[in-house]
Every structure is written in structure tokens, then in C-alpha cells.
Amino acid sequence: KAGVTQTPRYLIKTRGQQVTLSCSPISGHRSVSWYQQTPGQGLQFLFEYFSETQRNKGNFPGRFSGRQFSNSRSEMNVSTLELGDSALYLCASSLLSTDRGLSGANVLTFGAGSRLTVL
Amino acid sequence: SQQGEEDPQALSIQEGENATMNCSYKTSINNLQWYRQNSGRGLVHLILIRSNEREKHSGRLRVTLDTSKKSSSLLITASRAADTASYFCATDETSGSRLTFGEGTQLTVNP
Questions:
Q1: What residue ranges in B15-69 does DSSP mark as E strands?
Q2: pLDDT single digits (tens) B40-62
Q3: Which residues of A, range 71-110, sit inside 8 Å of B by Cβ?
Q4: Residue A101's pLDDT band (boundaries 50, 70, 90)?
Q5: Which residues does chain A have within 8 Å of residue B4's beta carbon, measured at their own beta carbons?
Q6: How close is the nearest chain A Cα to the Cα of B79, in Å?
């Protein structure tokens, strides 16, 4: 089955602009998580969506937002871009333990990422 | 902030040697996972160990977990050049909750 698809793979923006990144999860996965990866901060959790509802949110300013659609596809938006927003944005999907009827782990399947450069 | 700290930050070995990476974490966990990331790509899940397990094997991978010391290790035996990647540990505090990743170990396997 198809993996997690992220678009676009690369993009360049200037300060003050906004950007929208898209993520299509694995078929059947209803949970989508977003992470920001930078050399200095490592992998930082942004937010998680399940059934169109935000379940968890990381410690990022309100300029970072997301949503999930009824088909589980997700988008994240960053407004008023800053230089420090340059990063690899990773989306991951998973089957929640409740979906599997097991008490278990949140095993993530990642997309290849969207590399954002802010000039 | 990162839950885990990994040690070493970078490791360079020759093909055929074993590679050991360590991860320490701060809070009680439900389980611990290891992921691999090839340069600039997404992460790939390698192995999961639950908090009530002490050791787990998968092919050339061996993971140990010591909850009393809040630490885990990943051993890759008979390493190959294709194992060159960054390796991250990830923990969740309760079943199904969000994962918190360590800072990663950059492994280089020289042919």
C-alpha cells in the first residue's frame, strides 16, 4: 500500500509569507502527527490530529496551525514566516491503539518530509 | 524539550563491527521505540520495546531497556555501509500518546 505522502518536497519562501504543507496518510490510518526537525532543536512535536480533531499540541506559537479533513488528509500552515522556521517538516500517520483494540504503542510511519527554506 | 538524550552524538565504525547507541529519558514511559533516518528523509520505525520488557531482538538489532535507570541501548551487529544513518529513540508516557524523540546518534559505517 502507498506510504505517507507529503507535498511539496521542497519550497523556498521569504520572511512574512505563509506556507501550507500537505500530508496524505496511509490508507486506514486516522491519526496524523506533524514534527519540525532542525539541526539545533532536533525533532519537535507540532500537533496531532485524529478524526478531524486536534488531540495534542506542541509548544509552538499560534502562527503554526493545522487541520485534518474527513479523508484523514492533513495540512499544516505557517503564517508570517520567520528565518527560524526553516526546517524539515515531517508528517507521520499511525493507527491508534484504540483502532486496533489493543493497548499498545503509537508506531509512526513517516513521510519523506517537506524541506522549507525561508529567506 | 527533548525527552531523551542519546549517546554518543556521532559514531564511526568499520563494516562488520558492532555499533551500540544509548538513550536516556526522564519520565516514566509506556514503551520505547527506535527509528532510523537516512539523510534528509523521513524516519523509519525499527523496533519497539515495552516497559515490561528487558530485551528484544529483530534481525541484526538488539534493544535493551532498563526502566530503573531510564535508559535503553540499540545494538546493530555486523554493521554494513547501508546502516549509515541517524538513529533516534522515542518514548511515549502513556499508551498511544504522542512520541517524544531523542536528539539522535549519527552512525557512519565505513566500507
A1: 19-24, 31-37, 43-50, 55-58, 61-66
A2: 889 999 999 998 999 999 999 99
A3: 88, 90, 92, 96-98, 103-110
A4: very low
A5: none
A6: 24
